[in-house]
Amino acid sequence: MNQGEGQAAGGGGLTACRECDLLHRIVPLAPGGKALCTRCEAPLYRNVPGSVDRASALYLSALMLWVMANAFPFVSLKLGGRVEDNVMLSGPLALAREGMPELGLLVFLTSILFPLLTIAGSLYVLLPLRFGWRVPGAAPAYRMVRLLNPWSLVGVFMLGLLVSLVKLLDLADVLPGTGLYAFAGLLLATAAANANMDHDAIWPRVGPLPGGHGQATAATAAEHGLTGCHTCEMLVPAAPPGGRAHCPRCGSPVHGLRRPDSLARTSALLGSAALLLIPANLYPVMTVIRFGQGEPSTILGGVMHLIGGGMWPLAMLVFFASFVVPLSKIAVLVLLLVTVHRGSGWRRRDRTLLFRVTEVVGAWSMVDIFLVGILVALVNLGALASVRPGVGALFFGAAVVLTMLAAMSFDPRLIWDRAERPR
Ligand SMILES: [Zn+2]
Ligand SMILES: [Zn+2]
User: Fold this and answer.
1) Where are the domains of the chain?
2) Which 3 state secondary structure label does DSSP give 249?
3) Second label for 196, Cα 20 to 30 Å away, from 246, 346, 386, 420?
4) What is the predicted pLDDT for the residue at 336?
5) Cβ distance 288 to 295 under 8 Å?
6) Confidence band (pLDDT; 50, 70, 90) for 5?
7) Alpha carbons 254 and 251: distance in angstroms, whole number
8) Which among 138, 108, 140 has a CA at the least distance from the CA of 123?
């Protein structure tokens, strides 16, 4: 392994754009400043003043709020003198009890475990930086944080909760508990911590060119046989085809110049997701049972129900998240696959932007899964009313996970591989 590469990094280093691979010379930024790629406008790096202090404090508060959100009653339902208390874990447990442990696991991971691991992993990296401690395993911890961040869906869960509470208003009295307020605080704390997290305060992303010289700012990293490390973003020599290499600074595995088999993997995941969306929309995602009478409802049926109750804004939100987002995500990725396959030069910057938006909004489709999980847990009033999960929810959950994986396996640098260089 080439040990010298890591230590040689210093002032005047270079960084490669994550989305188009163009090399940029790193220039000092004013506090609060942000550097964008000159070619595709993806964010390159920024300067967050006091980043380590602020992010540590925010993640510490997030950790305490996570404990409170999970320990205290979340929402209680009052109907005819009966009060049912629920905690965060009630949703996953109720799904498992109703014969859908896979769905329960998905809700548990994305709303409870992954947020905790992201918070704990960030603190494990940040606190030693803040206090000058030396701890082993900071690199794997940071790698885990970056890997789990897209799957930590605190905000999406909050939206699912909001929709379910509105749906319950005509059924029973809903009493918010301490856990719910703590969860709202957790959402704010993690969002603020993310915004204050400056990845360069953890690992400066500068990397040297081989040989330590060269004025090539209109070149790509690939032209120098380099690729950005997925974890610390240092420029490292790419692994030979079929081979494996490790980042000399953080020890993460390094792929070749591009993600392996990106187009084939994305197509396969996308095809499976598109197939799963058919039963996901045909079968009911849940059945509401009132006084022994069952009303199965599909995703679109749930939207119609909200419209029928006069809740237009919420209906539009659910329609957008669970119908428009998955379909347009598939359409965008198909467009990207076809244009990349043809080596098209059409609107490269717009296509990169489309990809960026697709990656961010995709997770919001999970709102329907959370909605089902919350309602199954909350509405458990014996003969009066109960909610059962439907098999459509299982298909829908699988489709959302597959579209997220498809977006992650697509390498946006392929859009730019045959592009002309800016002057
Ligand atoms: Zn770029
Ligand atoms: Zn690295």
Assistant:
1) 51-201+260-416
2) coil
3) 246
4) 97
5) yes
6) very low
7) 9
8) 138
Question: 18 with 410: CB under 8 angstroms?
Answer: no
Q: Strand, helix or coil at 31?
A: coil
pLDDT at 32 over 80: yes
Total count of residues recorded for the chain = 423
Rounded to the nearest 5 degrees, what angle is found at the Cα of 383, between the Cα atoms of 158 and 290? Answer: 60
- Under 8 Å between Cβ of 111 and 179: no
What is the separation, in whole angstroms, between the first and last Cα of the chain?
35
Q: What residues are neighbours of ligand 2 (ion), with CB under 5 Å?
A: 229, 231-232, 247, 249-250, 252
pLDDT: is 80 or 138 the higher one?
A: 138
pLDDT digits 0-9 by tens, 38-82: 899 999 888 898 999 999 999 999 999 999 999 999 998 887 777
CA of 265 to the centre of ligand 1 (A): 23
d(CA 162, CA 168): 10
**Which ligand has an atom closest to residue 235 CA?**
2
Q: What confidence category does residue 6 fall into, taking pLDDT thresholds of 50, 70 and 90?
A: very low
Q: State the ligand closest to the CA atom of 356.
A: 1
Which residues are close to ligand 1, an ion, with C-beta < 5 A?
Answer: 17, 19-20, 37, 39-40, 42
Output the pTM of the full model.
Answer: 0.90
Strand partners, 207: 14
> Which CA distances in Å does 246 have to 70, 204, 205, 270?
38, 18, 16, 30
Distance 207 CA to ligand 2 centre (A): 10
Closest by CA to 15, choosing from 236, 194, 212, is 236
Contact 286, 268 (CB under 8 A): no
Q: Are strands 253-254 and 235-237 parallel, antiparallel or unpaired?
A: unpaired
